[in-house]
Amino acid sequence: MDIRTVVGECLEMWRNPYPYLARLREEGERPVAFFCSYTPEEILHAAGLTPVRLMGAVRTITHADAHLQSYCCSLARTDLDMALAGELDYLEGAVFVQTCDTMMRLSDIWRRNTSFPFHGDLVLPIRMGEEVSLPFLVEEIRIFRQKVEEFIGRSIWDDALEESIHVYNRNRRLADRLYRLRREKPGALDGLTATACLVAGFWMRRERHNELLHQLLEDAEGREAVETDRLPLLVSGSVCATPDLYELLAELDAEVVDDDLCCGHRYFDAYTDESISPEEALARRMWERVNCPAKHQCLEDRADRLMRQVGDSGARGVVFFLQSFCEPHLFDIPYLRNRLQEELGVPSLVLESELQSFSRGQLRTRLQAFLETIRGV
Fold first, then answer.
1. CB of 209 within 8 A of CB of 171?
2. Hey, is 286 helix, strand or coil?
3. Is the dihedral of CA 77, 79, 80, 82 positive or negative?
4. Taking the model in full, what pTM does it have?
5. pLDDT digit string (tens) for 330-367?
6. What single DSSP character describes residue 264?
7. Is the dihedral of CA 55, 130, 236, 282 positive or negative?
């Protein structure tokens, strides 16, 4: 398939993945939804299920407000709304990782008010990266594996799980190459294309996504580097449910050269050790990877990593793109912004978004003003 066609399809998936998810079921796949990048997708994959990520939708809430308060994030509210409206009936079920208060409550509400065959929970320790939390994580992985085995009615053999770990590690290596190429070969691959092709993997079988990334990399690595005067930026936050932010930045002659998103760089951060038992390996990757703001860890570690990313990518500004009412991310913002400004002299912009009242025009106005400030216009 022509690479432009591939990229166009990925962009359409990012804009509205749900027709593609319904098609997965028609093609014989068994999609199981997840909401968080801490989900051990390899276990679902080894069980013959297809993990698919729900990241909300731009829509008016009609059902979810009877169950979730209006100050819960729009990702949870819009996903629940679709489930209650019967728009996700092609799913086998969903996996809930207990990260924030909203996701913990969403799990209970989802279980009581929907009738999907499978419902999985994964409880994470409050403090990640400390020795005492690793045995807890290993046990949670073991329990989750048992729940999936009970659902499919058979055991998940270690060799199948090891093969799935290998497939996902290859996916992470390809994603890492994709991101490095953006820095090392300017103009060969733009941020919108790279992110769209990465995010599209949430809605397809991982083997197919590996083929897609390999095809994209072959095309991009064969291109010559091109000098560009686009303003380099880094985007930080949780998830970008639509490509609007990236498209607007491109229209305003800016380029996203790296990100700190849980649907981007944080998603493929760290590999799973293929030399130890699969359950311990999956737990260790969660334990060692860059921490989500919803989990407690030294804030300096997260700030130091962000500073390194900004320095390595050459970004001249940072856009914090957050879901409204996402307190774990919002708590970190003052400290991160101060470090960026005081130590690197890099300005930042904080944008909050609600999918049920998304305004592209307002987003464009604020981005334009921020970019003009950096350029000194």
1. yes
2. helix
3. positive
4. 0.94
5. 888 999 999 999 999 999 999 988 776 668 888 899 99
6. T
7. negative
